[in-house]
Structure to design on (469 residues):
């Protein structure tokens, strides 16, 4: 088969896989259709309620496996990533109940081996299974991890995770199905230095070290607010963890951990997404639950781009003050830098800013794919595959960097687009809301992975749309 034919087949398989992922994700949270038809041009105005962070809640659920008594997690968002982790925990015998909206009770007392096929069926849509390793090794002495899913924004390797598990004394066997991890001599505290402050690898170390024998020293750790919230949860469970200001975390292993009761930190990514939506549509949105401290860097960039915000007791109001937005130069970075998950919705706003903006992506190697559809809608965005030189940063420059140069303002016109990933997908929604004309945005279910009740929220904000099967 000629290469062009072969690449077409591969593309169509990838397209179908994505469509299947989207459909399954939407079904998990009761989404009624796969395509949203948006009539653009109306400013979004009103209040949205942002609850617990997708990137904390899913990890807190895994942490419950480490306890000898049930845990209670509050402010849990109704998103499909939470549904996936709930199903996975149940496959391992954990009783997952929801006594009221937003509350999960996780009882690990009957944890047992799962049927691999059950985990495999779920793992394709998430990266969380890799974080089950430490807790399962402690509880069952073994973990079977299938190939992982998650947003297609880069290669998404797990080498830092596997190296960390080996440092604790685990044995990693790779098979055609995925990886089998055992700990024949138990798990002992280790000195680990991450090559890059990886969020997932930091969580891997935390979830393994808390019950390993001895002290673990983790250097070059991620220190995102979601990581600190996970540390707070583990400390509630009985763990002994302390952090140094230089990205070093010490964990003194303990024999027993108990269940926790914890209210999840708010979702910074969702808050920043709605803030960008207010800029893009010329609107005014109160994001209930948003907090200033965890959004400091985003707020600085928001203000420099010409957005206005006001911090209240119970949230933050974001609005477009009128007049022209201003071009900004942004480099994504680890915390407390500008989060890589914030750049997609912001880029849509920058298409409306006067002048030339630059967004330099330093965390993932393929996170500008979504800009192609924005160009189709009239945006002027050039992606530089090799990034840009930059003078100072918290982590050494990596070869995978890319940069997007956005020249505005360029009026956006409607188009039919297919959502490629979670954050890129949200940027399509807000681009369509700002565009002249009627757009059709498909693969809608992918938004359900990380944005709770987003259809209801768009209705509350006055958006003009219909959802089609
Ligand atoms: C978490 O992903 C988040 N996902 C991501 O949010 C977020 O963008 C990312 O952290 C950075 O903040 C969840 O928490 C579920 P990393 P994670 O390990 O843990 C490389 C969203 O939209 N790396 O910090 O997978 C990796 O390839 C999602 O909510 C290795 O090379 O991110 C990337 O280049 C998208 N080897 C960099 O490190 C490894 O073993 C950062 O990855 C692990 C990571």
């Amino acid at each position: 088969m000629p290469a062009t034919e072969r690449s077409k087949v591969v593309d169509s398989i990838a397209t179908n896989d994505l469509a299947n992922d989207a459909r399954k994700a939407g079904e998990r949270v009761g989404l009624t259709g796969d395509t949203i038809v948006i009539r653009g041009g109306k400013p979004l105005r009103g209040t949205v309620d942002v609850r617990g962070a997708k990137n904390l809640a899913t990890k807190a659920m895994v942490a419950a496996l480490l306890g000898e008594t049930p845990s209670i997690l509050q402010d849990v968002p109704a998103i499909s990533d939470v549904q996936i982790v709930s199903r996975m925990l149940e496959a391992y015998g954990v009783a997952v109940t929801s006594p009221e909206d937003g509350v999960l009770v996780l009882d690990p007392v009957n944890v047992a081996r799962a049927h691999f096929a059950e985990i495999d069926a779920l793992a394709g849509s998430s990266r969380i299974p890799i974080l089950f390793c430490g807790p399962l090794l402690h509880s069952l002495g073994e973990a079977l991890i299938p190939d992982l899913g998650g947003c297609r924004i880069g290669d998404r390797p797990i080498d830092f995770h596997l190296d960390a598990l080996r440092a604790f004394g685990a044995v990693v066997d790779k098979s055609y199905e995925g990886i089998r991890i055992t700990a024949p001599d138990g798990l002992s505290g280790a000195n680990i230095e991450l090559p890059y402050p990886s969020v997932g690898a930091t969580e891997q170390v935390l979830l393994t070290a808390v019950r390993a024998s001895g002290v673990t020293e983790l250097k070059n750790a991620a220190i995102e607010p979601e990581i600190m919230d996970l540390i707070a949860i583990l400390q509630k469970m009985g763990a002994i963890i302390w952090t140094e200001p230089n990205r070093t975390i010490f964990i003194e292993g303990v024999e027993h951990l108990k269940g926790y009761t914890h209210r999840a930190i708010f979702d910074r990514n969702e808050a920043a997404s709605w803030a960008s939506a207010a800029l893009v549509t010329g609107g005014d949105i109160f994001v209930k639950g948003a907090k200033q401290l965890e959004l400091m860097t985003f707020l600085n960039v928001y203000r420099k781009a010409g957005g206005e915000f006001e911090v209240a007791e119970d949230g933050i109001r974001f609005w477009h003050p009128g007049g022209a937005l201003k071009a900004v130069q942004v480099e994504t970075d680890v915390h407390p830098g500008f989060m890589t998950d914030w750049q997609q919705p912001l880029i849509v706003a920058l298409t409306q800013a006067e002048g030339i903006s630059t967004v330099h992506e330093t965390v993932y190697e393929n996170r500008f794919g979504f800009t192609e559809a924005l160009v189709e809608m009239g945006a002027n965005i050039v992606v530089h595959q090799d990034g840009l030189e930059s003078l100072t940063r918290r982590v050494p420059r990596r070869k995978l960097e890319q940069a997007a140069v956005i020249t505005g303002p360029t009026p956006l016109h409607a188009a039919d687009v297919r959502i490629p990933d979670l954050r890129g997908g949200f940027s399509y929604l807000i681009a369509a809301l700002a565009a002249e004309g009627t757009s059709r945005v498909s693969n809608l279910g992918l938004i359900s992975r990380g944005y709770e009740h987003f259809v209801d929220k768009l209705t509350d904000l006055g958006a003009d749309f219909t959802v089609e099967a």
The pocket of EPZ is lined by residues 54-55, 127, 151, 154-161, 196, 198-201, 222, 269, 340-341, 363-364, 422-423, 450 (CB under 6 Å). DSSP finds 14 helices and 24 strands in the chain. The mean pLDDT is 93.
